[in-house]
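Quick one:
INPUT:
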């Protein structure tokens, strides 16, 4: 059997696995107990205790081991499934389901909307901690709504589009490696006295692996604007104008496009771990997000996730078809 034929078949299996993983997330969401990401996080926490020194070198070692070992493990399992398409599709589906968080993200957004609609500000403050690291203790409903819209926009990339992108590009190893990197960044990648140096490598690697997915998220957000009664033209204009105003090279892509799609203004003053950050505004002279915009942001994220699943799985199907035609042409 030629290598081209094997590639065509393997790509078809990968596409099937991605589709099954997306369906599993839609039906079941994240496991309530024993989530593999939580298990990984506990292991990574113990690894940090062993390796921690306030230096970039130790942080680089931590990032290499923390992301490299799960990636190698997933690649090894994938290789063991060679010649067994059902097992390989199942592994891809399991890895994709493990990494996806779209259903849970939408649920958290809907819970936040309900809390704000019913005037339950203390509950909304607690719910915000499920979405981001921002200090919610003094936030009132308008700022809670803004924080939620911004978090939903960014997390749609991190928890939905990026896992699908890396599953399409590199199968189980790609999606597991991505989730490992993203989790390490969430654990040590923010600037604090403890992690300023140690977390540098994890944060930079996370920036790199999200460069393309964040921009894909932005394009899909622009396309999804009409679903939330927005303008794709306006979303495109705001994204092009404001995408590089955010301190993150990737979060700004998602937040700027979401601001344009929803017709709201994002950015401003945020508090993280007692540190105050003032961020440039995205969305220009648009209004501040209201409580109703939280539900619109949930719908926007769901549409972006659905489009991402179609685009990523579809791209793998097209690649399989092209590889198959190449094999037939070579045989002729």
């Amino acid at each position: 059997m030629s290598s081209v034929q094997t590639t065509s078949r393997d790509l078809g299996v990968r596409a099937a696995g991605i589709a099954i993983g997306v369906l599993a997330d839609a039906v079941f969401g994240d496991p309530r107990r024993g989530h593999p990401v939580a298990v990984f996080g506990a292991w990574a926490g113990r690894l940090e205790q062993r390796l921690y020194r306030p230096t970039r070198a130790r942080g680089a070692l931590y990032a290499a081991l923390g992301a490299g070992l799960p990636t190698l493990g997933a690649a090894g399992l994938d290789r063991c499934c060679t010649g067994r398409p059902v097992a390989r599709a199942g592994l891809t589906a399991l890895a994709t389901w493990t990494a996806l968080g779209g259903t849970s993200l939408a649920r958290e957004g809907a819970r936040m909307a309900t809390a704000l609609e019913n005037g339950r500000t203390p509950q909304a403050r607690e719910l915000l901690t499920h979405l981001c690291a921002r200090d919610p203790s003094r936030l009132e409903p308008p700022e809670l709504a803004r924080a939620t819209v911004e978090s939903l926009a960014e997390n749609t990339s991190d928890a939905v589009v990026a896992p699908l992108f890396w599953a399409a590009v590199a199968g189980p190893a790609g999606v597991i490696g991505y989730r490992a990197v993203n989790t390490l960044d969430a654990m040590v990648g923010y600037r604090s006295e403890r992690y300023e140096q140690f977390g540098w490598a994890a944060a930079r690697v996370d920036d790199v692996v999200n460069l393309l997915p964040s921009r894909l998220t932005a394009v899909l957000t622009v396309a999804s604007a009409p679903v939330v009664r927005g303008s794709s033209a306006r979303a495109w204009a705001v994204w092009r104008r404001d995408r590089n105003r955010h301190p993150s090279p990737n979060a700004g892509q998602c937040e700027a496009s979401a601001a344009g799609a929803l017709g709201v203004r994002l950015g401003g003053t945020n508090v993280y771990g007692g540190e105050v950050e003032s961020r440039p505004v995205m969305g220009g002279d648009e209004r501040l997000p209201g409580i109703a915009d939280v539900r619109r942001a949930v719908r926007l994220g769901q549409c972006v996730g659905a489009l991402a699943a179609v685009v990523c799985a579809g791209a793998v199907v097209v690649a399989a078809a092209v590889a198959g035609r190449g094999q037939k042409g070579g045989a002729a």
